[in-house]
Design goal:
Elements (H helix, E strand, L loop, with lengths): L2 E7 L5 H8 L4 E7 L4 E3 L4 E3 L2 H8 L4 E2 L7 H10 L3 E5 L7 H4 L6 E5 L11 H7 L4 E8 L9 E8 L6 H24 L32 H10 L7 E4 L2 E10 L11 E4 L2 E5 L5 E9 L5 E2 H8 L10
Parallel strand pairs: 1-2, 1-6, 2-5, 6-7
Antiparallel strand pairs: 3-4, 7-8, 8-9, 10-11, 11-14, 12-13, 13-14, 14-15
Length: 313
């Protein structure tokens, strides 16, 4: 008999696992739950989530409660009575009253190697903090935030120049077969959940605009990690002539290791910024608030940089 599944998810990160589950002959997706249609993009046009679009293409019924804590949502789960609920980046906290309805519980795919990076932005903070490796974890959902027992994990290396969206896409693809393997082993009684060691836990909180603020006293590598980890939002930014300025770049060779952090330096066709420890960031792109993104040289020429001029924190 096929394993009866309800799938909860919303953004593109949740798509590979949904498509992988749909393709399995021993699984039956009874329904997909996703966030209500919202205004999206610059035009603020109301549109469906990526998960909803994929579910409808596959002919799967979609349910979009405004609040998963509602009585109607509870009635939905009791009526469908799935064997298991798979939840990936759904976007709402699941009430305890729903967790005990499926006989195999709720299974989450989390984009970190739990207990490290519990929270809303594990991919971003892993890059910002300079981690060399991360991964995906399948876990049983409980009332706490990403605190449930671990079922399986898969580790991957973080590429040196990888941005948060690029890493998230690779983790989503790595997680798709892992969730299938987890469900099969769980249904067959071949997997033992492991309690997380709370003493090893770190938190990956929801991103805030100010997380992108650059401290030029840090080494160039740490600043580069912040740029990669906070792309595309909130973006790494600084101040230039008292205006907010988003920057993109990578570590480069400093022509003046004694320059004060934040100092802008032109070396040949490169624009560099002095960083902590005698290091430098080679600017690639710059975007002043209210203006379009330009190359570093276009920025320098347009600003007519004065000697010793600085970015400030």
């Amino acid at each position: 008999m096929a394993l009866r599944i309800v799938y909860c998810g919303t953004p593109a990160f949740a798509l590979p696992a949904l498509r992988h589950l749909i393709a399995q002959p021993d699984f039956q997706i009874e329904g997909v739950i996703t966030q209500p249609d919202r205004p999206r993009g610059r035009g603020h046009l109301v549109s469906s989530s990526p998960v909803k679009e994929a579910a409808l293409e596959a002919g799967i019924a979609v349910y979009q409660p405004e609040r998963i804590k509602s009585e109607s949502a509870s009635d939905y789960f009791k009526r469908v009575a799935p064997d298991v609920v798979v939840i990936i980046a759904y976007g709402q906290i699941i009430p305890a009253a729903l967790l005990g309805i499926p006989r195999l519980g709720w299974i989450n795919l989390h984009a970190s190697l739990l207990p490290k990076y519990r929270g809303a932005a594990p991919v971003n903070w892993a890059i910002v903090n300079g981690e060399a490796r991360t991964g995906v974890t399948t876990m049983q959902v409980e009332a706490g935030l990403d605190t449930g027992p671990i079922l399986m994990r898969r580790e991957i290396e973080i590429e040196a120049d990888e941005t948060a969206p690029q890493l998230a896409a690779r983790l989503a693809e790595a997680g798709a077969p892992l969730i299938v393997e987890t469900l099969r082993k769980l249904a067959g009684g071949e997997i033992t959940a492991r309690t997380q060691d709370d003493s090893q836990a770190t938190v990956a909180p929801l991103l805030k605009k100010n997380d992108g603020r650059i401290n030029w006293s840090e080494p160039a590598k740490r600043i580069y990690d912040r740029i990669r980890g906070l792309d595309p939002w909130p973006e790494a930014f600084t101040l230039f002539r008292e205006h907010t300025c988003a920057v993109w770049g990578a570590p480069g060779a400093s022509p003046d290791a004694s320059a004060e952090p934040g100092t802008l330096m032109i070396s040949g066709k490169e624009v560099l910024v002095a960083c902590g420890g005698g290091t430098a960031l080679r600017l690639d792109r710059v975007q002043l608030e209210g203006r379009k993104r330009v190359t570093a040289l276009e920025f320098a020429n347009g600003a007519r940089l004065a000697s010793g001029e600085r970015f400030t924190s």
